[in-house]
Design goal:
The protein is built from 4 helices and 9 strands, in the order βαβαβββαβαβββ. The chain is α+β, with helices and mostly antiparallel strands. It starts with 7 loop residues before the first strand and ends with a strand.
């Protein structure tokens, strides 16, 4: 994951973290070419993944926020973690492409589960993934997520979430017992 001198910590983001989070999310989801990590959606979506307004709203959410993973106090990964009625919702998961493949994503996912279980008293975490992202779905399944059978449409026409390059995009829901 990291060397012995690196300190990892997690905490919910503050408003002054928004720009760094925005850069990480856009790089993780929309980067092309050599700078793209394995999580890029650039083959199926153009445009932005999010904007500073949405990030600010997520940071301010009283039922959760954006959980950040910091390496020596520098944000290297983030995820949306929200308390819902009977489960935690896990979304907008992004690891800086320059830091991918070092176990940081697994670490942050584990910490999100710990927060949901130990601090919020929840026993399940759910997420949605674009069905075409079979590599990402396999990654989540290796970590214990299972399909619920629920699906939802991609927001075609709402460029806040990207401009589809292909037809037929939709989300599938997964859950994991904590």
């Amino acid at each position: 994951m990291t060397d012995a001198t690196t300190t990892l910590s997690t905490r919910f983001a503050a408003p002054d973290d928004a720009e760094r989070i925005h850069r990480i999310v856009e790089a993780a989801y929309r980067a092309k070419g050599e700078g793209a990590g394995w999580t890029t959606e650039s083959g199926i979506l153009d445009g932005q993944r999010t904007d500073l307004r949405e990030i600010g709203e997520l940071i301010a959410n009283p039922d959760g926020g954006l959980l950040t993973l910091r390496e020596d106090d520098r944000i290297v990964a983030t995820c949306q973690l929200e308390r819902r009625s009977d489960h935690a919702y896990f979304g907008m998961f992004a690891v800086d492409p320059a830091a991918q493949a070092h176990g940081l994503g697994k670490y942050l996912l584990s910490e999100a589960g710990r927060v949901a279980r130990e601090e919020w008293g929840l026993s399940q975490m759910r997420l949605t993934v674009i069905a075409a992202r079979t590599d990402l779905i396999a990654w989540y399944e290796r970590r214990g997520f299972r399909p619920t059978g629920a699906t939802s449409p991609f927001p075609y026409g709402d460029e806040r979430f990207g401009i589809p390059r292909v037809e037929g995009l939709h989300f599938v829901e997964f859950s994991m017992d904590l």
